Amino acid sequence: MTQRHFLPENPCLLVSLLSGLIGGVFLVFIFYIRAADSPLFHTHAAAAAATSPLQTTPIQLRAILHYATSTVVPQQTIDEITISFDVLRSLSPCNFLVFGLGHDSLMWASLNPRGTTLFLEETPEWVQTTLKIVPDLNAHAVNYTTKLYESNDLLSSYKSEPDCFPPDKAYLKNNERCRLALNMLPDEVYDKEWDLIMIDAPRGYFDEAPGRMAAIYSAAVMARKRKGSGVTHVFLHDVDRKVEKAYAEEFLCRKYLVKGVGRLWHFEIPPAAKVTEEGSESAGFC
């Protein structure tokens, strides 16, 4: 049978219809974004969420509008993002800690809409600028005390500091003796057990930069201290760089590496208690 399609005889009418359709869709998005800021919307959303786990949240709507109208894209590739997306899809709502605040932050928060997503950023000015644009994000500035040029010395000497090593004795909060321990983070970081940890900051591409040594070490300590069930998923970006790769192999461990795509590695790190029960505990992190 011949397919029949309705087409107006007047091309100008067709253009008008298409313009109206596009404009209507855009107005619907604007309506939802504005409605998301009203108390009535939040009350309705909370009630709907109780009955429908797929109910769209305000931050997801904001993310749709943002990325649909922005020419700035996330730093990671689609293949790299998909690794973390698949884990978030299986665990959300969950606790997601992200080292770095960037063009992908609204995306990460929207992929964990009813969970806790916390961003740790090295530049206070960037935190303030970002939160003015996207106040929905939960972000804090972090004062890193390391420098990238110190990475070799820190890696070779940390075992001589009892508060850094052995792993089952290591801790973070108020640990002033271990230079690799992030000891002055917001209490929220220490009070929660993080299901996912993304390390995509701080800067690590010039000698005076903080480097990611402390972030990688601290993520490993958090994972080993986990009391809840399951593993801690750690995602490390820029593993093509020497320091990231060396610290990953020292603290996150090749045996826990489950997937790698592009410049991203995905580790599943069990808590120290589980490793001890299985009788495979080693003297070091790995």
From TrEMBL:
The molecule here is called: Polysaccharide biosynthesis domain-containing protein
Q: What is its main location?
A: Golgi
Entry membrane topology = Single-pass membrane protein
Q: Superkingdom of this entry's organism?
A: Eukaryota
What compartments host this protein? Golgi apparatus membrane
Per its UniProt record, what Pfam families does this chain match? IRX15_IRX15L_GXM (PF21729)
Give Gene Ontology CC terms: Golgi membrane
Signal as a keyword? no
What NCBIfam families does its record include?
Answer: A_thal_3515 (TIGR01627)
* Keywords tagged on the record: Membrane, Transmembrane, Transmembrane helix
Instruction: Provide the transmembrane region boundaries.
Output: 12-33
**Would the keyword Transmembrane helix be found if you checked this record's keyword annotation?**
yes
Q: Which GO terms describe its biological process?
A: xylan biosynthetic process
